[in-house]
Design goal:
Layout: E1 38-43, E2 47-59, E3 65-77, H1 78-99
Length: 113
């Protein structure tokens, strides 16, 4: 009788990982560019939605009133949101390595997320 030999898949040679070639095309009429300083996030079990806006008016209070102009809404799968987090963390780390630590002033008053 033949005895089966256990083979550890981790010990087997693997093919080198080849990154795909990526091409980004601009849509007819060009790409739209937005400045945003307000992000409101909502989500479902399936995806994450970011409503991107720009603060256009500040009225002294009390209470202080902030007016935002919505510029775009971006919806993505959770896996893409996690990837976005990863590349943002890397971009911020690279920026801070060159320019020093980014600090958010403790007295900065922002609307709740």
């Amino acid at each position: 009788m033949h005895k089966k030999k256990h083979i550890d898949p981790a010990s087997q040679p693997t093919e080198p990982s080849i990154s795909p070639e990526v091409k980004v095309e601009e849509p007819p009429g060009g790409t739209q560019y937005f400045y945003v300083n307000g992000i409101y996030i909502t989500w479902t079990p399936f995806d994450l939605k970011m409503r991107l806006s720009e603060m256009i008016k500040v009225e002294d209070g009390p209470p202080q009133k902030l007016t935002y102009l919505e510029k775009a809404v971006v919806t993505m799968a959770w896996s893409e949101a996690k990837y976005l987090l990863s590349i943002l963390q890397k971009a911020i780390a690279n920026y801070e390595q060159v320019n020093g630590e980014l600090k958010i002033p403790p007295d900065l008053k922002l609307p709740p997320p």
